[in-house]
Amino acid sequence: MADESTTFREIPGLDGVGVVRHAGPPPTGARHAHRSVCVCAVLSGVRIVSCAGARCEAGAGNVLVLPAGLPHTCAGPPSEYVAISIPPACFERGGLVPDVPGPMIVDDPVRFGAVLHLSELAGGGASLLERQGALLAVMEPLCGSGPPQSGPPSEPERIAQVRRRLESNCAEDLPLEALADMAGLSPCRLNRAFAAAVGMPPHEYQILQRVQRAKECIRQGLELARCAAEAGFSDQSHMTRCFRKVMGMTPGTFAAGVTRIR
């Protein structure tokens, strides 16, 4: 099989989380194992994995999960898939405990979409907080309960502190770990508690604040490229994608209709 049928790229800022894209016959038929948990979204065809005498067949739309260290072989007809490799250290930093005793096939459109969304972030153009939130969306369903969290201040006040930080420093590329340290919670617990209290996870709230900041800059008459930089977006195209998602229109459309602040 030609090498160009398989590509690999690490997602920036996620400490070794990698994305493999493959189209064609299995890249190797040799027995092997991965040091990371492997989460694979099958786009077309069938991916067949054999281990310990068992055979798993994941079809298009399925997610195949393989635990770290599991010896297995790959076989079968050509297929197309996207696979995310998640090192054990990522689970530890998130306060998560993987619960993947063996290979699993998941038929869940939400989890399938989460894998694809995370894989798309390998190309950049997203904040670190957004990349970390997307990684948690893939990891959390694979895990049992982490260690309990306790201690003052109360959780609502912790969430309020994080919320104020995101509002006052929306352009800062804050990692989830920094926000979790501020709140005295694990990254996973913070992500869940923030979403429960605010209605969206931290990375989405950060995007909302950046869009609001971009709107202020547009009203001040700044050029769109500068608005993107002032609001913390990686570039103007990143701002346009997020702006359209939040506002239902492009920054240019908004700029054409606003009254400038003199």
UniProtKB/TrEMBL annotation:
Molecular function via GO: DNA-binding transcription factor activity; sequence-specific DNA binding
Keyword check for DNA-binding: yes
Domain HTH araC/xylS-type, first and last residues per copy: 160-257
Keyword entries, A-Z: DNA-binding, Transcription, Transcription regulation
Any one Pfam family match given in the protein's UniProt record, by short name: HTH_18
Claim: Transcription is one of the keywords in the record: yes
InterPro entries documented for this protein: AraC-bd, AraC_XylS_family_regulators, Homeodomain-like_sf, HTH-like, HTH_AraC, RmlC-like_jellyroll
SMART domains given in the database record: HTH_ARAC
Name assigned to this protein: AraC family transcriptional regulator
